[in-house]
Amino acid sequence: MNDIKTFFKNLNQKRIKTIFNVEYSIQNKLSNKKPLKKTNGNKEKSISGDLKFEKVTLIYPNGFRALRDINFTVKHGEFIALIGNSGSGKTSILNTIAAMYKISKGKISLGDTFISSNSKRKYILSLRRQIGFVFQHKNVIEGLLVYDNVKSGLENKLSKFEKLTGIILPVNKKKIYDALALVKLESLMFEKVKNLSGGQQQRVALARALVSNPKLILADEPVSALDVVNQEAVMNTFHRINKVEGITVLVNLHHIDLALKYADKIIGVKDGEVVFFDKTTKATPLVIKKIFGKEIKDITPQSIKDSLKYNKNL
Ligand SMILES: Nc1ncnc2c1ncn2[C@@H]1O[C@H](COP(=O)(O)OP(=O)(O)OP(=O)(O)O)[C@@H](O)[C@H]1O
Ligand SMILES: [Mg+2]
Description:
The protein has helices spanning about 1-35, 90-95, 120-130, 145-150, 160-165, 170-180, 200-210, 230-245, 255-260, 285-290, 300-314, and strands at about 50-60, 65-75, 80-85, 105-110, 115, 130-135, 215-220, 250, 265-270, 275-280. By secondary structure, it is α/β, with parallel strands linked by helices. It has one domain (about 45-314): Rossmann fold, CATH 3.40.50.300. It has a six-stranded mixed β-sheet with strand order 6-7-8-3-9-10, with helices on both faces. A four-stranded antiparallel β-sheet has the order 2-1-4-5, with helices on one face. Strand 7 (about 215-220), helix 8 and strand 8 form a beta-alpha-beta unit. The model is unreliable at about 30-40 (pLDDT under 50). Adenosine-5'-triphosphate binds near residues 60, 86, 87 and 90.
């Protein structure tokens, strides 16, 4: 019985794969003749550029002041790690970039565009479509194929025809393939997500964020739920995408060693304030103590040195 099940499963996967390959090769031939038109940016105002926080204060609706007078400028293409104690305000910073909450004071801009929840809803939705989000809980649908999970990242960009018929045009299939190739999972495209390791599943989530061609990736503790090996694999993938594709990455991390190993710069957040913003190589035991208000077990002068050495050799 199991053999029959496996036979049909393989047959079905082969069928989807063959259809995909034929369409993909046709698309490739076409795109060799004529470059693909970039759909992104034609209708929407592109949001690429430096990300600037000027005296930003965030007071949540219940009156809690989560961010105070925050200032920093992230240059386009930088890899930034946000570190700090639990409750210090890291997620709140990412929330304000995604315009989830209206800031109480100050300005946030991305390139020449101001981000603020005062803006029209249409604009905010357009902004969010251009940001890739990755969370601690992978938010992948385990029962579906890797392909379908990544496709869901394109939902807003599919045509009415594709939504109605479920037939995905080759140009969009190519986007799905390319996003998976970026996270090196193209060979598992027709595998069910539940058969993948935790790290691979998080890379599927990253591919889903990448498929809509974002200029900025915001990741909130993307490796917290993973074991050490998978943490490194996922951080390596973020790093490669940042360096190869030039996408700005802001990632909240609980693991100080990973921040030191992979980021260009660190934002140290303490009690709603930025107490350190500089190149990762400037981090010292004293800096870590300043951010966390105490010495951290396992983070020693030697471990900091080792992490920074790793970072330099990346
Ligand atoms: N929607 C909200 N309404 C009111 N207070 C909030 C809200 N979200 C967060 N806070 C409070 O703001 C502060 C900062 O929270 P935030 O989630 O930004 O911290 P964090 O640094 O991301 O913490 P963690 O490392 O635990 O994820 C906390 O005191 C939190 O309780
Ligand atoms: Mg958080």
